[in-house]
Amino acid sequence: MIYIATTTINPPTKALKKFASNKNCKLIVALDKKSKKFKLKNSIVLSTSYQHKKWNKLSNMIGWNCIQRRNFAILEAYERGAEVIALIDDDNIPYNNWFKNIYVNKKIYCSKVNTNKLVFDPVGYTNHTNLWHRGVPLEQVNNRKYKKAGKKIIKADIQANFWDGDPDIDAVCRMIYKPECKFKKKYFPFFSDKISPFNSQNTLISRKMIKDYFLFPHIGRMDDIWASFYVTSKKYKVVYNESTVYQARNVHNLIKDFKDETIGYENSLKLIEALYKNSEKIYDFLPLLSSKAFDEWKKIISKIKK
Prior knowledge:
Order of helices and strands: EHEEHHHEEEEEHEEHEHH
Number of domains: 1
Number of strands: 11
Radius of gyration: 18 Å
Number of helices: 8
Strand content: 15-25%
Distance between the termini: 17 Å
């Protein structure tokens, strides 16, 4: 069984209803202070009081009304023995193929792709060459080049599935292009040995990497992006797979998104350069409260029976 972890402030959406209805999955929803009344069959709903009582110290460090409450759904899945945890957003409507071709913890034969850049941008490798993944340093966007290096067998720790419709790009890219995407299947699956971004909106991760995977609070929209830079710098393998959802994106204020991404525009390239030298340099870029929350996360994980 695949455990699915998410958070929402909305009533059950079309996407959440579809995930909850699949017998091969168990949906876990961590509510927030702004959450609307939430009832959904075949799902586990974590109330705010449950989260705050069970993980009081971490809850206080992360705070409320933020997408990082998803961390508590991940913890609940981990405690329940999940070997594979899927991270989703409530506006990503799954296609039928979402529930097929799960590669995490399995060996997969797929294309290796090299790039001339310090960071591998998976979006630029596809048929949408003008776009880039959220979190890719803007300094790395121009003149991206890719070269297929044959097919290799790897064991996937992470499976980052793509998204048709409104893709996961940053505010700058969205303001310029405002795309409606359909990613061609012929490119997938593929991987790179470089540090690379993946998100927490349509991604499956292995149990073994949870101790190192944390959605960092207090760094805006870089929470999952810097987490992906950290774990890929530690050599966890991410396989990028075809679109398995249609993102009917919730309403966003793009100027607010831009402001929430500023920490990345200013620091992500420097962070990536540091991570190539030493993964633990992540601490040099995190606010103190975020660093303490990460340490608390690791303590909690270490106490849970493997």
